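hey can u check if this looks right to u? its 268 residues, i copy pasted from the old doc so theres a chance i mangled smth
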Amino acid sequence: MNQQPRFFSPAETARQLKVSTKALRLYEALGLVNPVRTNTGWRTYGPDQMARLHQVLALKSLGVPLKRVGELLGDQLAHLDAVLLLQEAAFRSRMAGDARRLELLIAVRRRLASGETMSADDLIHLTRETVMSDPNIFISYAQSTEAGAHKIGELLRALDYGVWHNDDLPAFGDYAHVVEERLKSAKAVVVVWSAEAVNSSWVRAEADLARESGTLVQLSLDGTVPPQPFDRIQCAQLVGWSGDLHAPDWHNVVESIAGLLSGAGARH
C-alpha cells in the first residue's frame, strides 16, 4: 500500500527548517517556492516544496543573494560555480577589510592604554587610511557609457563588493589625487572601452596604471577594440548587453574580478 505524501502547514514547515513563517512568505513572494493550497485556501508544503526550500536555504547559507537564488534554481544550477566563485571572493574581501579594522581598533586601544592621547583628527586620519585600503573595484569609463557602467556597478554591489567610480568623488579635495588613491587601492579596475574612452586621456591613464598593477579587467559595450597596448589583453565584448547575468562574456568579466579579489589573478 503506497504511503500518501505528507503535507505540512506553514508553522510545521518553519519548525522543521528552523526558519520563520515570515521567511516562508518572503520566499513565496519572490517566487522561490509555491505552496500547495487546500480546498479552503490554506498553504501547505509537500515533498516537492520541502525539497525546493532545502535548496533555497542551502544556497542562502553560502551567501548567495535571494535574487540570484531564484535565477540559479530556474537555470538548474548551471551557473552555480561562477556564482560561488564570486561569493568566495566577496567573503575574502570582507574578511580582509574586517582584519584591517580589527588591527586598527587594537592599535588605538593600545595607544590609549599607554596613556597616549588621541585627537579627533588623529582618529579620523587612522580610520580614513583603513577605509581607503579596503579591497574594492574601480570602474573607469567615458560619459557615453555612463549608464552601462552604472549597471555594472549595481550588479557588482549586489554581490557585496565595494565599487567606486567618478560619481563617488567627494565635494572637496583634489580630483586627480582622489582618483589616484582609489586606483592604487583597488584590487580590480574595470575599464569600459568605447569610441569616446579610446580618446580619453583619463581613461587611458587609468587603464595604464591598472595594467602595470596587474588589476586590469576590460570590456566593451559598443564593440570598440582597446587601443595599444591594451589590445593584447582579453576584452569582453558586451555589445547590446542589457544586464543578462548568464551572458558568457559577462561571466568572463566577473570571473576575472573574482580571481583578482581572491588573489588568483585575472583571466587573460
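Strands lie at 36-37, 43-44, 137-140, 163-164, 188-193, 216-220, 235-237.
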